[in-house]
Amino acid sequence: MFKLNFRLKAPLLAKAAGLLLALSTLGACTTPEVCASLGSCGGDILAGQKSKTWQVGAVCANEVAAAPSIPSLVHQAPTLAGEVSPKRTQVNWCSEMVLDATKQIKIIQPWFPALPVQSGQITYDDHGGLNATFNYFGPQEADFAAECFQSQGYGIVPEGTQSGPNTLTCSEFTPILLKGLSTQPNIMNFRCGNNGSGGCVCLYDLLLITSVVGKYVVDGSVINHYDTTSNSPVSAADFCVNGNELDLSGHRRTFLFNQPAMRSLVLSSN
């Protein structure tokens, strides 16, 4: 009888231990799950009707960690063969703002954080039609330090001070910035004030509206949502109908309707 005896040598054992440590450390750095599944009892989402509309009541969204983009690299010309590639630059706190000689904004690339869902509704019909709308809303703050203006050759002066060719007040900066953000039509209640350190702080409300129009297919206690107006993949949801309440949870921890971080929805109907 042969007796097999495998034994790791010390260097291999050390490598294996290091790999296990790296894997455990990687798992410890992942974003934790904060949205529990709401159940999958199934049911009749139409409640015996030809069409049923459900209003969004409660939303649970996970925190999403995303690597910061570097928009300044987008405007850099590609390097030719034999040339040294440009060094990586970081997104600055000035939103890449560039002011021209007339104090107007030539370039600005604002950053908008994730917004919470304020309201929405989902309509299903007996022909498999789907129409969903989600309204994201939240107050926002944009800070422009004194250096953001000084780097452009301008300075911020206190309100009530007569501005000159190279100075301006924050109230004068308000319409300038609003014009620079004219491609963002859902910015409301915009106003800027002095931050007390030679810069401006701007407050505003941001509204984003997304919609999903397509088809749905019920498979047991899972609804498959198909967005026929985009190339988005199918979005599967566990569902449970309990009277006038519909609970949706991302199937196998996926995002609902391919909306970033949206894990579960509690909806109601009259």
Strand-residue proportion:
35-45%
For the sheet with most strands, the description reads:
8 strands, antiparallel, barrel
**Uncertain residue segments:** 1-26, 65-77, 84-91
Could you give the distance between the termini? 77 Å
Rg over C-alpha atoms, rounded to the nearest angstrom: 27 Å
Strand order of the largest sheet: 1-4-5-9-10-11-12-13
Outline? elongated
Continuous helix count: 3
Number of strands: 13
SSE string, helices as H and strands as E: HEEEEEHEEHEEEEEE
Output mean pLDDT. 82
Word description of this protein:
- The protein is built from 3 helices and 13 strands; from the N terminus they run αβββββαββαββββββ.
- The chain is mainly beta.
- The chain has a domain at 51-61 and 94-268.
- The strands form 3 sheets. An 8-stranded antiparallel beta barrel has the order 1-4-5-9-10-11-12-13. A two-stranded antiparallel sheet has the order 2-3. Strands 6-7 form a two-stranded parallel sheet.
What's the short version?
The protein is built from three helices and 13 strands, in the order H-E-E-E-E-E-H-E-E-H-E-E-E-E-E-E. With 270 residues, it is mainly beta.
Topology readout:
Elements: H1 10-28, E1 51-61, E2 98-99, E3 105-107, E4 117-125, E5 129-144, H2 146-150, E6 155-156, E7 167-168, H3 170-180, E8 187-194, E9 200-219, E10 222-227, E11 235-242, E12 245-250, E13 262-268
Parallel strand pairs: 6-7
Antiparallel strand pairs: 1-4, 1-13, 2-3, 4-5, 5-9, 8-9, 9-10, 10-11, 11-12, 12-13
